[in-house]
Write a structure and sequence with these properties.
Number of helices of chain A: 15
Radius of gyration of chain B: 21 Å
Radius of gyration of chain A: 31 Å
Strand content of chain B: 5-15%
Order of helices and strands of chain A: EHEEEEEEEEHEEHEEEHHHHHHHHHHHH
Oligomer: heterodimer
CATH architecture of chain B: Alpha-Beta Complex
Number of strands of chain A: 14
Shape of chain A: elongated
CATH class of chain B: Alpha Beta
Number of domains of chain A: 3
Helix content of chain A: 25-40%
Shape of chain B: globular
Distance between the termini of chain B: 9 Å
Number of domains of chain B: 1
Chain lengths: 483, 487
């Protein structure tokens, strides 16, 4: 296929569920997994006479997300009604933002596999309410079902929609964009980014055109990807499908397609007959929003250091690009890492412990790094005791479970367990005893059977309960066996 | 007919109990309702229970509010928990809200006795109360005529003495015009003064709850009870509410010296009934004789108010009424085979002709390609109208005009001509567009004995000035002493 002759134009629309305690316009809980219609009230049900009141947290989270994405925060923003009839929409209009979104004109930097980086433009970020959920009986769609039930728990859950510029050129770039976006939102603590539960949903707009042409190809929207991997594969599939269509003279039609995970392809969901007319107009039940400069300054000051800056810092500390990416992925892990470094731990050592044994333990126990008694202080101490050879790595690994479970002072623990590494005179005298107690093996060794060094090491270790410093043991044995 | 203060007096003196007062009003309701139909629901048991509570309070020596034991009517677009709230529509004929509006909650807390939910044009859309799916209300002064609308039930009930005061809502004149037709006082306060929480929305940026009374004082007492900031309504104003009724002092009835009153030039002339014209001019002369400084004021954009209103109000209504779809509550088209059919059947059967007309206009003007020409233009004109008012209030304290171009008309006489009905709102609409307070009070009667209303419009939050001037006029004239023979 002459695939290289085409270029792909991709833009992403990401719906992020904000992690507020309550819904965007009422006091109902946003908790997931409650029984159907367990989190509803007359306001989020849009009952007659009910009025929305904006949850200030939603505004704060959205402004912070806008700042994190290098957007300009609108001096004057407002809500609008987006009108369409559907049973999951209690008022038959969605309170959203149309021409004055809270944030616009931003960008986000992604790192590509080859180590280079690329800026992806952010067109806009706006606040809106989510709709409810339909459960169809006898079919997975409304049409063909005998009846449908409506669950309004999700109705009124706050969303932040983030629209990218069509700057993305491949499936891997799209996945990198979505991942970095999620990382930033998680760093802010405004979205948990759980794609399985739908708290982060990416819709992809994609078209292909022959390289060198100005006109965009027909745009297709793809929905229903619930992992980054799926985003990448859906795009790769769609590029191939569209290129093939152009190559074979078929027409690419403007439509919405669904990614089908089990068959690994996109299928047509509905064709768009021109633009939908949502009859937007300003929401008269809510007042215009102007975030005061003092509030903006406060929010700005509360922003954390973002993953991109952290990765750069970690590379400067000597981590590889891949390792830096890995440990910067989660804010609390990164902060744990940095705390250990600040206490003097070696970066590579700290990385290995955190991403190795500690991470496996966290996974196994389903814990967060902030939950465990093994604080950065404990880790830094452990690393420094290995570095000054007070304990061996083996002992460190042996006592790790206890440190993970109980924390506390490493020194006190090794003292209590009498686990300090033996070296110097004490070790030398034990080695002398071991050699003296095994004259036969000494003779054989000196006769040329040097493989017996291992035998002596083993004996020393046994005699010291494994506390003998390995390097010193080898050195002393060599000296004494080869006088 | 008793005033609020007279009721208070007899309650305190033990002359009459709250239950007795309530029962007397209920008896009158039962007597008059077959002719008037002011109420959609008479809340007899609720009223008696509430009155008993007041009597117990009196017996226990607990303090009373001015509204304690006062029989009150509530327009049936204010949600009342556990009590049918229909909006005069078939769509909500079975709708019992599981929540209480802020206004009715405040009134209940103050011990007011709700005797019933009053009739209205369907979803408050109309100027005659004839579009109510439960049938129209008659004017107590002449039962062959309309009481005006949309708060016609509230106005008729107060006028006939079925209740002492009543709550209404005013989107384009729905309090002032029926007050004018029924010969009582009605005030639509500044937009945002009274909470809209629990008021079933017609046009959210224009809707405002207000009060009716047979006197300025009663109207003021009710207004000060329902006004005030409500965190549940984002458009509600954070402001201290004066005790309006305490500002109505006897000295006002002696002199209006220092008060500057503007007469809106554009509200006189073609289309204005000559008897109304004469009565209003006489009232102006009367105010002048009391020492008020009168000047003619031009509000050149006034005449664009009507088309502007019918674009903005219908746009908002088309969205506000979209929720009545048969999915969750109210009427549902039961024989539908699919979702679209259910929507269509529900809305076809549930809404009356006037409501449908407005939903269609609103849907049309918001459609792609028309938005800029209609909605956006209307918003700009709205700003210009507001500027006309702002300029006027640089020179005067209040503005004066007729409330309506005519007196009450015969039931059915305008049913086939919606435009002539819309024209009745010509003089009241601009205050809604500008969010300003407006009041109507009786200023005479035509040859057929039908009341004529005088409208006063005040600057933002100047309900105090409006009520004071109205009080001065009322107390120095005789109009408020007349009552319809039916009562």
């Amino acid at each position: 296929m002459a695939k290289t002759q085409y270029e792909t134009i991709i833009g992403l629309e990401t719906h992020c569920q904000l992690t507020t305690e309550t819904k965007i316009f009422c006091g109902c809980s946003t908790k997931f997994g409650v029984s159907p219609n367990g989190n509803v009230c007359p306001i989020c049900l849009g009952m007659p006479g009910m009025l929305p009141v904006l949850n200030e947290k939603v505004l704060e989270y959205s402004v912070k997300a806008g700042l994190a994405l290098n957007c300009a925060i609108a001096p004057l923003s407002k809500f609008d009604r987006k009108q369409y009839f559907y049973p999951d929409l209690p008022k038959n209009y969605q309170i959203s933002q149309y021409d004055l979104p809270i944030a616009e004109h931003g960008w986000l930097q992604i790192e590509l596999e080859d180590g280079s980086s690329k800026k992806i433009g952010i067109t806009r970020l706006h606040m809106e309410e989510d709709a409810g959920k339909l459960v169809h009986a006898g079919s997975d769609r409304l049409s063909g079902s005998s009846h449908s039930l409506v669950d309004y728990n999700r109705a009124g859950v706050p969303l932040c929609e983030i629209v990218s510029e069509p700057d993305i050129r491949s499936g891997s770039e799209a996945a990198a964009y979505a991942q970095e976006l999620r990382r930033i939102l998680r760093y802010l603590g405004v979205c948990d980014g759980n794609m399985q539960e739908g708290s982060l949903r990416c819709d992809v707009n994609i078209s292909v055109r022959p390289v060198g042409t100005e006109k965009f190809g027909t745009k297709v929207e793809i929905k229903n990807m619930n992992s980054f991997n799926a985003i990448q594969r859906a795009i790769d599939y769609e590029i191939e499908r569209q290129v093939e269509a152009y190559e074979t003279g078929e027409k690419v039609i403007q439509e919405t397609r669904l990614w089908e995970e089990n068959t690994q392809r996109t299928i047509s969901m509905r064709t768009k007959e021109g633009a939908s007319d949502y009859r937007y107009f300003p929401e008269p039940d809510l007042v215009a929003i102007a975030v005061p400069d003092s509030t903006l300054a406060k929010y700005r000051a509360e922003l954390p250091e973002f993953p991109a800056a952290k990765r750069q810092k970690y590379r400067n500390w000597g981590l590889t690009g891949y390792d830096a990416q890995l440990i910067a992925d989660d804010r609390s892990v990164a902060e744990y890492f940095e705390a250990a470094i600040a206490l003097g731990a070696d970066a590579k050592q700290a990385f290995n412990w955190i991403m190795g044994d500690i991470t496996s333990y966290l996974k196994e126990q389903k814990l967060k790094i902030t939950d465990i008694p093994l604080t950065p202080t404990v880790l830094a101490e452990l690393i420094s005791l290995i570095a000054d050879q007070t304990i061996s790595s083996k002992i460190a690994k042996d006592i790790l479970p206890e440190l993970l479970a109980n924390g506390g002072s490493v020194k006190a623990l090794i003292k209590a367990k009498n686990l300090t590494v033996l070296s110097g005179d004490a070790l030398e005298s034990i080695i002398d005893q071991v050699i003296a107690a095994n004259p036969k093996e000494l003779e054989q060794y000196r006769a040329g059977k040097t493989k017996l060094l291992g035998f002596f090491v083993g004996k020393v270790m046994k005699a010291t309960n494994g506390q003998a410093a390995p390097q010193a043991t080898n050195q002393l044995l060599n000296q004494k066996l080869n006088p | 007919m008793l005033s609020i203060k007279e009721i208070q007096k007899s309650l305190v003196s033990g002359d009459r109990s709250a239950v007795e007062i309530t029962q007397a009003h209920l008896a009158l309701i039962h007597k008059l309702e077959p002719q008037l139909h002011s109420f959609i629901t008479v809340t007899e048991e609720f009223a008696i229970a509430q009155a008993e509570k007041i009597d117990n309070q009196i017996a226990a020596g607990e303090p009373l509010s001015l509204l304690s034991g006062v029989p009150i009517g509530i327009k049936d677009n204010m949600c009342t928990q556990g009590i049918l709230t229909t909006c005069g529509s078939k769509m909500l004929q079975n709708f019992i809200p599981p929540y209480e509006s802020t206004v009715t909650q405040k009134l209940a807390n103050l011990g007011a006795v709700m005797v019933g939910k009053t009739n209205l044009d369907e979803f408050a859309m109309g100027g005659s109360s004839e579009t109510s799916a439960m049938g129209g209300t008659a004017n107590p002064w002449d039962v062959s005529r309309v009481p005006g609308g949309s708060s016609g039930g509230s106005a008729a009930a107060v006028s006939a003495g079925e209740c002492v005061v009543a709550v209404g809502s005013d989107t384009g004149g729905s309090i002032r015009q029926p007050a004018s037709f029924c010969g009582i006082v009605g005030i639509k306060p500044t937009y945002g003064l009274v909470s809209r929480f629990g008021l079933v929305a017609f046009a959210s940026s224009l809707d405002q709850v207000g009060s009716f009374g047979r006197s300025v004082e009663d109207t003021a007492i009710l207004l000060e009870a329902i006004a005030g900031y409500d965190p549940k309504d984002s458009t509600s104003i954070k402001v201290d509410i004066p005790k309006y009724s305490e500002l109505l002092t006897p000295d006002l009835t002696q002199s209006l010296k220092g008060k500057k009153i503007g007469v809106i030039k554009e509200t006189f002339g073609e289309g204005l009934n000559s008897e109304v014209d004469a009565a209003v001019r006489k009232a102006i002369a009367h105010l002048e004789s009391m020492g008020a400084e009168i000047q003619e004021i031009s509000c050149p954009r006034f005449r664009y108010g009507l088309p502007t209103y019918y674009i903005i109000a219908t746009s908002e209504a088309s969205a506000n009424l979209a929720r009545y779809d048969g999915v969750k509550y109210g009427l549902r088209g039961e024989s539908a085979e699919n979702l679209l059919n259910m929507y269509c059947q529900t809305r076809e059967q549930g809404f009356g002709a006037e409501v449908k007309r407005r939903i269609m206009i609103g849907t049309y003007v918001l459609s792609a390609g028309y938005y800029d020409a209609y909605y956006l233009k209307a918003q700009k004109v709205r700003t210009l109208i507001k500027q006309d008012f702002d300029r006027a209030f640089e020179h005067v304290d209040i503005l004066i005009s007729p409330t309506a171009p005519t007196t009450a008309f015969k039931s059915g006489s305008k049913a086939e001509d919606p435009l002539s009905m819309y024209l009745l709102d010509l003089m009241t609409i601009p205050a809604n567009l500008a969010g300003l307070p407006g009041l109507s009070l009786p200023c005479g009667f035509d040859a057929q004995g039908l009341p004529i209303g005088l409208q006063m419009v005040g600057n933002v939050l100047r309900e105090d000035t409006l009520l004071q001037v109205a009080y001065a006029y009322e107390q120095s004239s005789e109009w408020h002493k007349r009552s319809p023979s039916i009562s």
